[in-house]
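Open question from group meeting: does this chain pack into something compact, or does most of it stay loose? Before anyone orders reagents, we agreed to write out a predicted structure and look at it together. Recording both the input and the output here so the notebook holds the full record.
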Amino acid sequence: MTSSYTSKHGTVLKRPEELYMLFCDMRNFGNMVPEQYKECVTADYDNISISYQGVTISVRVDERVPYSIIRFGSAQSPVEFVAALHFDPATEPGRTDFYIRLDANLNFMMKAMIGGKIQQGLDKIVDSLVMVSEGRMPEMPKDFKF
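Structure tokens returned:
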């Protein structure tokens, strides 16, 4: 069963073109990984794969609509999903209204167990991106482990 999630909207202090260019190359995601985990990540322009503790998750770019949407799909994952990053011009010049839409094939039990966590995670990504664009460091959960 497909479950749909939409993050909150956040105003990022970058133009849509600037933000889009950051996310359109999957190698940029690989560059954000902490040094001690770099060997777990492989990336090229269209794909990224993370292998950690016997689990591999691979994501590919399915579609790029310049400066407005990037769609990702699961290539290898315990859960099949499609995600879209939206880069809309904000009402204030030089800013982006950013949000994420995610569709995941979750059975009833998985949805009950992780559905709320998915929503929280998407909202946290948006909040963190807004904070970084404002020159602030995002707050990491105290129990965060990678």
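Observations to bring back to the group:
The first strand starts at residue 2 and ends at 6.
The chain has a mean pLDDT of 92.
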